Amino acid sequence: LELINSAKAKLVNPGLFTDIIVGFPGETEKDFQDTVDLIKQVEFDGCFIFKYSPRQGTAAFNMRETLDNEEKVNRIKILNKIQDEISLKKNRKMIGKTERILVEGPSKKAKPNQYMGRTESSKIVVFTNPEPVKNSFINVKIVDVQGHTLFGEKI
Question: Does the pTM of the predicted model rise above 0.85?
C-alpha cells in the first residue's frame, strides 16, 4: 500500500490495474475479505479477476484445493461487482474533462467512424472522427460513460 499511496501522491491520475486469483489452495474467508478490503481501499482503475485452476509443473499443482467451483465463481462475482462500482464512480468523474489519448484504431463494437484509444492512465475511450491516424495522439472531451468505457468528442 505504501507504493500505491506514493504513486498516487506523486503522479497525476496514475492508472492502477491488478490481477487477482480467487480460490488459491488454502484461501480462507479472511484472505478473501482482505482482498475485498484492498480493492475498496486502493480503488483500482481496473481489476482482472480469475479463479484458480491447477497448472501442472507449478508449486501449487499438488496442493489441496479448499474451495469448490461454486464458491470460486461466487467470489469472482462479489469482487467484480465491487470493482465495477469503483470503475463507474471514477469514470463518471472524468465527464467534462479533456484527455490526451493514443489512437489504437477502429472500435471493435462501434458504429462507422468510431474509433478507440487509451488515456494516459490506460482507460478506453471511444470517439467519432473521420480518419484518425493510428498511433497518434489527439485530445478528446469525455462526454459519457458506459461501464468501463469512456466516450469522447474530438477537440
Answer: yes
Placement of cell 461454486 in the chain:
70
Give the helix, strand, coil percentages of the chain, each rounded to 5: 30, 30, 40
**Judgement on whether residues 141 and 71 belong to the same structural domain of the protein:** no
Joined together, the cell numbers standing for residue 72 give: 470460486
**Domains held by the chain: number:** 2
One DSSP character per residue, 105-124 reads EE-TTS-TTEEEEEETT--E
Write out pLDDT tens, residues 67-115. Answer: 999 999 999 999 999 999 999 999 999 999 999 999 999 888 767 788 9
Q: Cα dist. 44→1, 40, 76, 106, 128 in Å?
A: 12, 8, 16, 27, 28
Q: Which of 46, 73, 92 is the last residue of a domain?
A: 92
Distance between CA atoms of residues 58 and 51, nearest Å: 16
**What's 18's DSSP letter?**
E
Which domain does 130 fall in, by range? 98-154
